């Protein structure tokens, strides 16, 4: 079953056309890596998928929701579609547990005890059970990012979007965040991730999508795509970007 359908999406900022007719389909449980040069439209595409940006034309369906402007519909969509950014955006004056419990308490009709149980469960998933009562500034960058992922998971999303979640981290901390994402993938989460970690994309993503100048330039099963790029643009990108 398709969990994400993007059909001929166009998006401009003023005179600048950033997405020029993008289409892709992600099946349930698939992991898509979005790669491409800076400015190719990766973040914009991701942001369109949960309504942070409005498309000019085209159709997006995600986690059973048709993307539309109605704020109520958007709120419903966002309980099923988690997004995590490079910056963790945790509330510094709230503990880890409180950060995670905030959204479910507001959006979902659950008791405090239930949200506590959910928070403990998702913290365990990201390997941070013992940090429930810590404040964000008492954690490393990698730990904070894992809390940000846990916070998204607390909403029980059907689809997770990740935009360069490891870009601000040292290699060692990057590794611990990637391990959490790999675990999520093997648990069957449908995921789309923008990443510069080519090794991770090749190993974990079922498909990789190479964006270039606002279009999907190449797309295919990750291993084949990296091993045999068909276009000179992807060949060049893979050569210059492999760490
Ligand atoms: N809110 C905005 N207003 C105007 N222009 C924007 C806006 N957001 C993005 N752009 C422009 O759209 C283009 C694509 O940006 P986008 O952030 O999607 O690229 P990207 O592929 O994610 O790049 P990077 O790898 O650097 O994150 C860029 O030229 C950018 O300047
Ligand atoms: Mg980006």
Automatic annotation (TrEMBL):
Query: Which protein, by its recorded name, is this?
Result: Amino acid ABC transporter ATP-binding protein
Specify the species: Sinorhizobium numidicum
Does the keyword section mention Membrane?
Answer: yes
Q: Which GO terms describe its molecular function?
A: ATP binding
Its localization reads: Cell membrane
Pfam family for this entry, one: ABC_tran
Q: What keywords are annotated for this sequence in UniProt?
A: Amino-acid transport, ATP-binding, Cell membrane, Membrane, Nucleotide-binding, Transport
Q: What is its main location?
A: membrane
Residues in ABC transporter domain copies: 4-238
Q: Does the keyword Heme apply?
A: no
Q: How does it sit in the membrane?
A: Peripheral membrane protein
Its ancestry begins with: Bacteria, Pseudomonadati, Pseudomonadota, Alphaproteobacteria, Hyphomicrobiales
InterPro entries, per database record: AAA+_ATPase, ABC_ATPase_HisP-typ, ABC_transporter-like_ATP-bd, ABC_transporter-like_CS, MetN_ABC_transporter-like, P-loop_NTPase
Cited SMART domains: AAA (SM00382)
């Amino acid at each position: 079953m398709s969990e994400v359908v993007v059909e001929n999406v166009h998006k401009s900022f003023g005179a600048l056309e950033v997405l020029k007719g993008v289409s892709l389909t992600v099946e349930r449980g698939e992991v898509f890596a979005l790669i491409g040069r800076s400015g190719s439209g990766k973040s914009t595409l991701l942001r369109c998928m949960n309504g942070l940006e409005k498309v000019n034309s085209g159709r997006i369906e995600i986690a059973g929701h048709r993307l539309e402007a109605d704020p109520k519909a958007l709120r419903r969509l966002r309980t099923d579609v988690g997004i995590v950014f490079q910056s963790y955006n945790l509330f510094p004056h709230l503990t880890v547990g409180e950060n995670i419990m905030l959204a479910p308490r507001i959006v979902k009709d659950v008791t405090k005890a239930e949200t506590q149980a959910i928070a403990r469960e998702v913290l365990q998933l990201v390997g941070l059970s013992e940090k429930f009562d810590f404040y964000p500034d008492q954690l490393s960058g990698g730990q904070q990012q894992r809390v940000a992922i846990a916070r998204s998971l607390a909403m029980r999303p059907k689809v997770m979007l990740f935009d360069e979640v490891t870009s601000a981290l040292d290699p060692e901390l990057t590794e611990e965040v990637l391990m959490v994402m790999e675990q999520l993938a093997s648990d069957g989460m449908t995921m789309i991730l923008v990443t510069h970690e080519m090794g991770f994309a090749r190993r974990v993503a079922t498909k990789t999508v190479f964006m270039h100048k606002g279009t999907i330039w190449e797309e295919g099963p990750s291993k084949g795509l990296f091993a045999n790029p068909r276009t000179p643009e992807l060949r060049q990108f893979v050569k210059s970007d492999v760490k």
